[in-house]
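FW: tagging you since you asked about this chain on Friday. Here's the raw sequence from the shared folder, copied in full. Didn't touch anything.
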Amino acid sequence: MSTSSSRQTVNALVFLGPACLFLFCLLLVPIVVDLVVAFTDMSQTIKVNEFTTSQFEKLARPSEASWWGFEFRGSFYRALSLSAIYVFFTLAIFNVTFALILALTTTALPDWLGGLYRAIWLLPRMSPSVVYGLLWLWTVDPTERGLLNQIIGVVGLGPVNMKLDAPVTLIVFANGFIGASLGMLILTSAIRSIPQHLFYAARADGAGSLSIVRHIILPALRWPLSYITVFQTLALLVSFEYIFLIMGPARQTMTMSMLAYTKTLAPDIGSGQYAYGAAITLILIVIGMAVAMILWRLTNMKRLLAKPRIEVH
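HL: got it, structure written out here
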């Protein structure tokens, strides 16, 4: 082996070795453990009596009337449907669209004002999760002490109870406001990396703000928008932290990830069903992989990640 090859091997081990070990221990090993546990009867303890598919039979049952040959049970079907609704609307309204609006507006403002506005939007993400959840609980308090009821009371409207009347809307807003900040940062950085001479030339040709956004900014944001869409979709599929802090184990907001958490770790609400929670998690992993592959194709990320034709050594 040449000296150059040996040096490249050593550099790869030094710089990539810790990252690969980290991914192996925190990504691959948990997936393998989840796969094994899902096909056992583990419950309350780590003792395994037999390997079985009974946990999946709790989620679906054979049905000759169904196209697929089986049908989902009620609680699992509701969790699956709610997860799809929650992910789609949170992603479409906040994590992509609202993040793009924030990036466009803050970059159009003077630097100090845009920076201040972005810092304000980052406050929820920098705050502890419990604090953010408590703020939402105060906001949607159904009594007259709630912030929302105080605001709508000014115009003469009666109090509302979002936790009871619009629980899905509540979790979409709560997760959307904190999720938009990440997209805002990525898109802001991408907009600032666009060469300024393109904007000068467009202005000189008489282009307006909307034309500049459509023909210069949006084409340059194709890669960041694709990344945000894929990353945030997978993140929302497994998110349950703020849902649990704000709504608790409510049936109206029982997403797939919440269902898995409550069946395994949530105290006093039917936890300890380790194999059952592992089966739900395994299905969630399969769904995440399928969604990632579909989005990979739809966004054409393979072309976006292609190697440059000119390499500088």
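FW: The mean pLDDT is 85.
HL: agreed, and Residues 3-38 form the longest helix (36 residues).
FW: great, closing this out.
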